[in-house]
Inverse folding.
């Protein structure tokens, strides 16, 4: 079933007898009425089979989700470890980056459930796991997107409003936890329908984990509402903040004759381009989904193309979790130095167990002193973001 929150799709089939255009789950069925009577996939009842799409998803989705899970977990875990043990979050951007890394870690940890779901062709976990997996999935995806908007605004204040930045940021930094808490609560509120409607239920000999609506609850309106919230907070709001803030940031940096500033411009351009490349394709698919929702006589070839597009563009959208640590953290000189310290300490711990009497206390003390010294030297506008 198609999820309207970037959820991974099930690869199970629906009963042909239960499918018609008054069905509550009419859009994401594996069979749908078609006006292409000559299509090879259309049977006597004019039902178009998407079996080839299901076969594709059983191979494509587990492989790509597994790769995203591994790289996203490693990259974001390194960001969390860096902030926890090596670098204190001294700016709003650092606080947002830390929360975004936590959100992305929780997000990618839900992907193994969908790997199993697609590989098995059915939901093999409990109903509670279904609701939690869907809910955590949606909450952390929305939270990550909203935090991108927060990062954009903080960088705008720090660079474009440089004369006011010290006063503004000195007031907001003590309230950073409250701001991040508000973002998390808003994400939970946006995703509340996920916990409500998603459930495990039997379908043609197997079980699926999908939204299920009562016949008297006007399912089309609920689907459109969920889709509108996803598009608004998962794409248009972050895009509006990024375009507005980074446009003024680039203009300000262009006026500054500084090589480091020009390098920062390249980073900003990369951030925006990656966001657009990852998010635009899937959001266009969602817009087409909204336009076709409830529409009869949909063409079989077009529906197959849309089904393939949903799988491919969804994976592209999830790549954001892998690229965020690179674009927002490791491109910064400070984060690269902290990353090297992590590698050295890991090597130290390894040698400790191989060489009797070897101690890492000196290295850890040096790391602590280095952290204290670097943090004292940093000004209030310092950030892990290369600016």
């Amino acid at each position: 079933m198609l999820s309207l929150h970037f959820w991974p799709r099930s690869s199970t089939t629906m009963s042909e007898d239960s499918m018609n255009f008054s069905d509550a789950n009419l859009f994401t069925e594996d069979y749908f009425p078609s006006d292409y009577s000559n299509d090879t996939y259309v049977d006597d009842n004019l039902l178009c089979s998407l079996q080839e799409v299901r076969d594709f998803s059983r191979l494509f989705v587990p492989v790509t989700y597994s790769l995203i899970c591994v790289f996203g977990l490693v990259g974001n875990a390194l960001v969390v470890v860096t902030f926890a043990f090596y670098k204190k979050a001294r700016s709003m951007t650092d606080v947002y980056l830390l929360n975004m890394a936590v959100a992305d870690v929780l997000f990618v940890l839900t992907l193994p459930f969908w790997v199993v779901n697609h590989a098995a062709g059915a939901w093999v976990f409990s109903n509670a796991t279904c609701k939690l997996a869907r809910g955590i999935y949606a909450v952390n995806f929305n939270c990550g997107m909203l935090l991108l908007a927060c990062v954009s605004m903080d960088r705008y204040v720090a660079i474009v409003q440089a004369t006011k930045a010290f006063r503004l940021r000195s007031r907001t930094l003590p309230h950073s936890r409250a701001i991040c808490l508000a973002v998390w609560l808003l994400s939970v509120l946006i995703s509340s329908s996920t916990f409500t409607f998603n459930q495990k239920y039997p379908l043609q000999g197997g079980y699926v984990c999908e939204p299920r609506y009562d016949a008297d609850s006007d399912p089309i309106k609920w689907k459109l509402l969920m889709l509108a919230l996803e598009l608004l907070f998962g794409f248009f709001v972050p895009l509006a903040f990024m375009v507005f803030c980074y446009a003024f940031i680039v203009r300000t940096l262009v006026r500054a004759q500084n090589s480091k500033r020009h390098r920062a411009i390249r980073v900003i351009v990369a951030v925006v381009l990656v966001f657009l490349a990852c998010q635009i394709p899937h959001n266009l698919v969602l817009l087409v989904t909204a336009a076709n929702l409830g529409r009869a006589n949909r063409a079989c070839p077009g529906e197959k193309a849309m089904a393939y597009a949903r799988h491919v563009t969804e994976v592209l959208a999830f790549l954001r979790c892998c690229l965020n640590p690179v674009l927002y953290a490791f491109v910064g000189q400070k984060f690269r130095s902290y990353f090297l310290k992590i590698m050295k300490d890991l090597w130290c711990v390894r040698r400790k167990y191989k060489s009797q009497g070897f101690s890492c206390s000196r290295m850890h003390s040096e790391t602590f002193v280095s952290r204290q010294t670097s943090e004292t030297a940093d000004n209030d506008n310092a950030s892990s973001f290369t600016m």
Remarks:
- The radius of gyration is 24 Å.
- The chain has one domain: 16-377.
- Residues 1-45, 361-382 have pLDDT under 50 and may be disordered.
- The first strand starts at residue 31 and ends at 33.
